[in-house]
Amino acid sequence: MSNFKIAVLPGDGIGPEVIEQGLKALKAVGNKFGHTFEFNMGLIGGVAIDKVGVPLPDETIQLAQCSDAVYLGAVGDWKYDKLDPSIRPEKALLGIRKALKLFANLRPAFVYEELADCSTLKRDVVEGVDIMIIRELTGGAYFGEPKGIENRNGEKIGFNNMIYTESEIERIVRKGFEVAMKRRKKLCSVDKANVLDVSRLWREVVLRVAKEFPEVELSHMYVDNAAMQLIRNPKQFDVIVTENLFGDILSDEASMLTGSLGMLPSASLSENGVAMYEPIHGSAPDFKGQNRLNPIATILSAAMMLKYSFNLDAEAQSIENSVRQVLKDGYRTEDIMSDGMKLVGTSEMGDMIASYI
Ligand code: IPM
Ligand code: MG
Predict the structure, then answer these.
(1) Ligand 1 site, residue 248, Cβ cutoff 6 A
(2) What number of CA atoms fall less than 13 Å from residue 18's CA on the CB side?
(3) Is 91's pLDDT higher than 90?
(4) Element (H, E) at 209
(5) Which of 127, 204, 230, 332 is packed most tightly, with the most Cβ within 10 A?
(6) Is 192 an annotated catalytic residue?
(7) Per residue in 176-187, pLDDT tens?
(8) Is residue 157 pLDDT above 70, yes or no?
């Protein structure tokens, strides 16, 4: 029996609704296994802009730093689209990743047998897919300097810098190998080493770290080919490790194998500090308050928290089993609805999963 402090940052759009469902699941786990989860709410994104004028208040970072884990909904709303980029809600997401040094983003794409027909791809292509995408999260073009828009020679130029140090590459690549060791021992490193210097260094470091993991079957793939292979034959992949921007793109692509963006959780880990858990989907402001969105990605993110931050494997499993059982019993939110299934709203789906726990 233990006590865990969780910083809860619901954010914008449908963030609060899906987080509410995740908290129901955590409470159910607490009751069943005798743990106490202490939820401390914090502001992030547009709601923080409205209340205190900045998307990522210092108090939120402090709250996160003195917690055992951070649980985030989503940030962003059309109404902030006209703001200066430095205070847009998305800035908060990048800011908290950087502040907490969350360099490793784990995005599992797992196809539930019950949902194999929801994908736009054929059942036999996606059935049995179980991929872990590991995306570098605090480097590359997202953060590289110099960057900006300037006037040069009578016209504007825009630029970003995809830059990585050897040590940044090494720690994410090592994470890739470590995760592969706990899975099917296959690692695919995705780069663009035929064109980019930064990718050539990436590959050099991958080959060096690989010597420490002789049991892992390593392959390299250019990112354009990887994008194609993910659609052509996704079952060839076990763990994919890649840099920030490539990982952003490939993880959205991989989510469609599973049938819905609403199914994919994520964990963002640091070297030894607090970790953050969030669905990979955004804030979907058009759906806000309508009780229509799928909370499963957020609920499964809570399972990842139990596993990676608290080492509670059986507890994590109890959430995953409940999700599976609810799907087996035919309950579906709109995004994964099909003939003969029972349509439920966000909150009913949350209640159902919590009660199965
Ligand atoms: C993601 C999102 C973010 C990203 C945006 C909202 C800043 O797309 O988490 O994948 O690009 O990292
Ligand atoms: Mg993205």
Answers:
(1) yes
(2) 38
(3) no
(4) helix 197-210
(5) 230
(6) yes
(7) 999 999 999 999
(8) yes
Clarify whether 252 is annotated catalytic.
Answer: yes
From 44, 90, 98, 277, the mutation candidate for ligand 1 (largest count of ligand atoms within 8 A of CB) is: 90
CA 215/CA 148 separation, integer angstroms = 44
Q: How far apart are CA 226 and CA 48, in angstroms?
A: 38
β-pairing verdict for 148-152 and 331-332 = unpaired
- What are the tens digits of pLDDT across the range 92-141? 999 999 999 999 999 999 999 999 998 999 999 999 999 999 999 999 99
Tokens of 183: 């899975």
Count of Cβ atoms closer than 10 Å to residue 53 Cβ: 9
Establish whether residue 335 lines the binding site of ligand 1, counting it when its CB lies within 6 angstroms of any ligand atom: no
- Helix 346-356 with 15-33: angle, nearest 10 deg: 10
Q: What is the pLDDT of residue 1?
A: 64
Check if 224 is active-site: yes
- Omega prior to 234 cis, within 30 of 0: no
CB-ligand 1 contact for 297 (6 Å cutoff): no
Strand partners, 106: 134, 267
> Which residue, among 353, 329, 333, 355, has the nearest Cα to 344 in the 3D structure?
333
Is 142 marked active-site?
yes
Using a 6 Å cutoff on CB, does residue 254 contact ligand 1?
A: no
Calculate how far, in angstroms, residue 36's C-alpha sits from the geometric centre of ligand 2: 32
